Give the backbone structure.
Amino acid sequence: MSETAEKLMDLAEERMREAGYHGFSFRELAAKIGIKSASVHHHFPTKADMAAAVARRYLERFLENVAPQPGESGEDVIAVYRSAFRRSIEHDGGMCLSGMLGAESGGLPVEVAEEIENFFRKAVEDLAQRLGGSEERAFAVLATLEGALILARAYGEVAAFDHAAAALTDNDAPPLMPLALLNRKPHAAEKLRA
Amino acid sequence: MSETAEKLMDLAEERMREAGYHGFSFRELAAKIGIKSASVHHHFPTKADMAAAVARRYLERFLENVAPQPGESGEDVIAVYRSAFRRSIEHDGGMCLSGMLGAESGGLPVEVAEEIENFFRKAVEDLAQRLGGSEERAFAVLATLEGALILARAYGEVAAFDHAAAALTDNDAPPLMPLALLNRKPHAAEKLRA
DNA sequence: CAACGTCTATCTATCGATAGAGAGAAGGAG
DNA sequence: CTCCTTCTCTCTATCGATAGATAGACGTTG
């Protein structure tokens, strides 16, 4: 994997997390790293190939990010997952790649949709196992975290994520930002990109 | 509002719930109802205008769908919301419009993003009030339901929605489809559209 | 020489949008 | 009743921009 290809994947991932599969173009990525769009096809024959590769890498990195810590017990895993998802909106206000493409999956090339399906199967598998076998709980946790990202983006407030995800862990409830923050009338979803 | 404009909004809503804002074109909608794409601009000057109008109508209908029943008490409202969201994936395998556009909000025209933000503010307001004032709980419920739709689409299985949303109501747990259904290796997200 | 990576040049297809013409219904004025 | 105007809606034709993709030449590196 050449350095250029990695840069292209970085940019593609960032743009897909921001605006979805149809929200970026080869020309846009190429311009950002100073090459021509035709050259992008040398690294990724088609856009679907590129998106599938990005999704594959995303799953790998995700599983590394949520890898069990020595001494982890019981429900600690939920806090680990929550932190991983929160990082997504913290850093650049973007969605989880799989959440975005999962929503859009009805309009994706088949090979991309398959990678996304694989992401959720692997995530459910990992989470359910570490939660003691409850697949139902794993589904609920993942759903809440993906949805919490949507709310945070719609509100343009990271705090919305925290509110939505707070109930996932009952006891060690972290202090929440004041709800009043979410009640003033802000200027749409533009804010997160500032 | 002319009959043609309503048909256009119906189609636009369907396509946006399936593939997102960038996932459909005026030409596509026009062809489906037998007019030319130029004529669509007579009803909606720009694509952003159309999407904003669709989002506004979606909120109205949503609030009607979840309107309180006489005699509703306490946590009944969660089952009402769950049913409303489930209908989305039941009927045509599509997302909730606001969930889709909320995810994509980083790449939307400002007027569309504002309608989506308004949707969630109104939904949180309604839900929190009927839940006895807990905004945090309202956030969590909405997030879980939106995320449950994403999972159902990624899996290509409506049952995934039920698993993800099951824990929202503790007691009157409805019988779930067997988990085994979700463990066989299916053919991507294509299935829901069948 | 051979591979790799980028280039120029170009293709076909599609996008949202606009200008201006024309068909047809509605409705008031004579 | 007929004429004329106005409004609504769709049309043809076209614009400029952009999309993903391809063929083939060129230089660099090993």
